[in-house]
Amino acid sequence: MAELRPQANQYILGISSLWLLIPSLGGLYGRRETLLAAATLVTALVSTAYWRRGLRGSVLHAADLACARCLFGLLLWTTGGAPIALPAAAATCYVLCEALFNAGDFDMSMWMHLLFRFLGYWWTHVAVLGPASFRGAFVLSAAYWGHVFVAWAGARRDASFVASRAYGGGVARVVALIAAAAAALEFAP
Questions:
Q1: Which residue positions in the chain have pLDDT lower than 50?
Q2: What is the pLDDT of residue 79?
Q3: Per-residue model confidence (pLDDT) at position 2
Q4: Residue 81, pLDDT score
Q5: Where are the domains of the chain?
Q6: How is 96-153 classified by DSSP, letter by letter?
Q7: Cβ proximity of 157 and 165 under 8 Å
Q8: Dihedrals φ, ψ of 25, to 5°?
């Protein structure tokens, strides 16, 4: 099934999945909440693989949905439901994202998906690594949204942009940005 979603949107939804590397690798390295950290890592990698082409109905799409739903359930179980507002807001954003996609509003669908992912990221971060400091939350949030805006605007400017061709470089840039943000937080005074 051919996708109608703009290539720039597909690209951003794919490479932004990698932000889950922070809580997943941090948890595995620190041996904290290892089941949740491992599930988060698998979810991030499957999601990144799916969005390279982003074909709904494909095996990777089914795997992406299954991983995301399992991670959501595992987060609910691990955190005892967390403050109900966080899972409720994440689920609402996802439902809105799907409704907007089905209505053909691909840009708003992407932004809802990114907000859903941002909420999921912080829920996972707190569940695996504990709460971030104000500075840490600010740096990581600014890096996430800054990366999204810059990469999306750059991709939108190129009329011949194809997500799958730009994917390798985009993945490398996000991993480098994540490493730089993590290093800045780790080694800053």
A1: 1-2
A2: 77
A3: 44
A4: 55
A5: 7-187
A6: HHHHHHHTT-HHHHHHHHHHHHHHHHHHHHHHHH-PPPHHHHHHHHHHHHHHHHHHHH
A7: no
A8: -70, -35
